[in-house]
Amino acid sequence: MNFFDHILKAKNRRLLIGGHRGHQSQTRENTIANFAELSGSGVDYIEIDIQLSKDEQAVIYHDKELSEKTSLNGRVRDYTVTEMKEVFELCTLDETICWCKANRMCTLLEIKSKDYNERERTVLGGKIADSIRSFSFADQCMLLSIDYEILKIIKEAVPEIHLALIVPSIPDDPVRMMKEMKASVYLSYLDDLNKTAVEQLQRNGFVVDGSVVNTEKDLQKALGLGVDMIESDYPEMIMKIYQSIPIGDE
Question: How many domains does the chain have?
Answer without folding.
Answer: 1
